[in-house]
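== Sequence, structure tokens ==
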Amino acid sequence: MRRTAILSITTTWVVLGMMTLAYGQSKPSSPPASLKAVASSGPLLPNDVILTIQGDYTFHTTRATGDTVLVDLRGVKIAGVPKDGKLGSGVVTDYHLLQYMDVSGAPVVRVQLNLREPETLHAYRESAGLRLAFGAHAEAPAKAEAPRTTALAPVEPPPATALKPSRGPLKVSGVKITSGPAGETFVDIATTSQVPYTVLQLQNPPRLVIDLEGATNAAAKNYAANSPLLKGVRTGQFRAKDPSVVRIVADLAGEPAFDVHARDGGVRVALKAKAPGAAAVNPTAKTATVAQAATAAAEKPSAKPVERISVPRPEEILTVKEEPASTPADLTAEKVQLVAAPEEPKAEAAVAPAPAPVEKAAVNPIDFKTTLPATPSSPEVAAAPKTEPAPATSEEALQAARAALTMASHPGLVTAAAPQNEPAAATDEQPQYTGEPISLNLKDVDLKDFFRLIHEISGLNIIVDPNVAGNVTLVLDAVPWDQALDIVLKNNRLGKTLEGNVLRIARIETITAEQEAAAKLAAAREDALPLVTVFRPVNYAKAATISTMLKSWVGGGALSKRGNILVDDRTNTLIISDIQTQIPVIMAIIEKLDRKAKQVQIEARIIRASATFSRALGVALNLGLANPSRRTLAGGATGPSSSAGTGIPSLPGPPPDDITLTAARASGFGSFAIANAGANYFINAAIAAEEQKGQVKTISKPTIVTQNNIPGTVTQGSQIPIQTTINNTISIQYVSAALTLKVTPQVTEDGNIFLDITVTNSSPGVVLTTAGPSIDTQQATTQVLVPDGGTVIFGGVNVTRREKNSTQVPVLGSIPLIGNLFKSSTTSDSDAELLFFVSPKVLPG
């Protein structure tokens, strides 16, 4: 029988014996107690909550999550208390009340307390009702009516009149399947005495699991059913001790409505076809998140020890939704439903999310001295001890463990035929073990017996290859069962394959040979398949580009070895020829590639600024002398083009009417001249000065639109003709001397734009040969990320020139101050800078 890991909320009702007898004999019961108020204790004890209750009652506390506590008050009704309310500034933020009836007809009030942070709970009685003290500092009063229980004690100390359990061992004697007059199906589980039970609903396939605690199985293993609602019933001994558990599994046909309740002589499961729109179970479901089973054990009270009696726990009906194998073991709110009796169908209590799962669950050691016993043929199946319920023991954890089997020991050699909804395990990652922790002490145990133990723990069907033989000796403490299995397989050079819930174990060589044979068979079948030809027009991409990509695809992801692709450039169409199974793969790849590319509008502002400054200063002198006899003449001049005798008039004679001097610059701006002449001499002087300033600012604003990853170019400049002669043939070629901005945009998934920018500034330079002028080039390249609609400033293309020239008469021009009369000087400065403002924007559509 298949064993499944169970996740359940272990809440147990303990009812007073006299009340149970009263219900069994249908005697009138006493009036129920009343819940009068829910309030905080006050500023002195802000973390205490007082439940004001009048009448007799019993209570039970459960921690649903780290910050959510449930308190069930049995035999209590709500009396004028709001069902939702706030509780001040203490650790308890608010509460929620839910009223329902249990299977015995007793009223139950569930108080849900939401905490700001996880705190320890101490619950004890007072004269006014029940005090719930949160925090380690809370102490019970010395004169409390009943001993205080620790945080989330599973039971409340009962009165001395508690009903004693039935004598003798509790056994499951049989299962009877009958049909009702209205199409119902009843499954009666016969027990020697009343027994507490837990119900779990599982999917895929649909089934009900009923665990009877403290019982041993004496019934048959399988029961066939002739019902449209039930396929059959299986029984088995799920746990042998601590405590013993008998598991009853009802395999459902579809999803009928069900009800499980205790009756004289055992437990009855009632199945009925679900009405349209009805829920899966009769009671109103209340969603809860179960992620932690580390509930603190109750402190042993000083009163008489509690004896468990056969009172069923109807609030523990769970509905677990089965997920794919890769789902984590912790359950979400949609996966576990906690069901209460249908007293108020519309009342629901929201439960806060669960904290992190418990890191390590308690385990029960298994000690084998020499060898494991063979599987018994009787209905009582020996099972390995089971840990306390924890998140990792849910049905989902079992599915995850099954998926982990395919990659645990030899991921490269084993291929699991897993269902389609289970993702393939990554072979390059370490295996994740999610099995139930177990402790083993084995010595010289036969491998087949060890695999039988794994079957009992995991619930997997295991098939062992005939060639597998050997013994195993190991000691493990709190190791997941799937990890223990991998260790044994590695030590014995064994591999495994998982198909559904069937685990096959064989030697690695056997599995490798089978996989190679399967690969050859698949290749032979593929070679025998006929070719299919399809035509696929390409809308946005180039058909030739996609064809090249598909043909060069390495690893067989696109074309098969017999496939081929032709391109019709005129219609931009792909002609694909391949086997039928490969056509959908190729079409899906083309669909991903043939998509409309995003367009980007690039607006650029180009600013070219230049500044020039020049200054020139020159002095020109000439003079002439004659001796008294006027026979000897002497003269001279200064200036760029002066020479001896220049400008010396004939003497004697009248002074010249004009002064003709060579200025410092031919285009001199601002000149001053002075002349003096006598009978025996003359002297002329001229001063010329010039200063020029210039500023130029050129702004252009080009705008272009380009596609994603397609470059856009902006050019501004001129073409320079250059004459060349080749083989006596004269030709003229044009060379570009321009400012060029080239931008390639790439739109990212988050809406930003990645720009690849190249700027080139070319201008005519000095004429070096008769072939033409040289080209001066400046270039810069950058890559930058810009938000959609943002602007990036790109500059730094600067040219600065400083020039200073001086012409003077040797020696005389170096004399301080006076030397300025014998020289001329020129100073010039120039600055030029380019700035670019680039603003990309993604166009809609």
